[in-house]
Amino acid sequence: MRHLYRCALRWSDMDAYGHVNNAVFLRYLEEARIDFLSRRDTRSPEGSVVARHEIDYRRQLVHRPDPVDIELWVTEIKAASFTLSCEVKDADAVYVRASTVVVPFDFEEQRPRRITAQEREWLGKYADEAGEAVAA
In whole numbers, what is the pLDDT of the chain averaged over residues? Predict the structure, then answer.
């Protein structure tokens, strides 16, 4: 199963060359990740931090009125981190393929924490590389 986030393009996202600036894609991925994580069945006072991003820019994306789709799914779950994979795309093209390593974090203790059994179960529902997106 995949999570689907529809992301509007803003005029300020464009650079001098008329396409979405490479750094803006990190913001798009952040919006999709926050939307995804906010849908967890369990709430926790702890949060998470990003440990790593990998981005492959596949094609230029120019401003338009229609949003792009960001499909997000889980590709790895470890004891104290998980990896989300994403595609920024529409019906005609994939603009970006990316992965993000997320570390659960206890902000009170200021240290990483282990993934709980409930979190592992919830993340496991999205551990699918070939599934269809579920609209958010």
Answer: 90
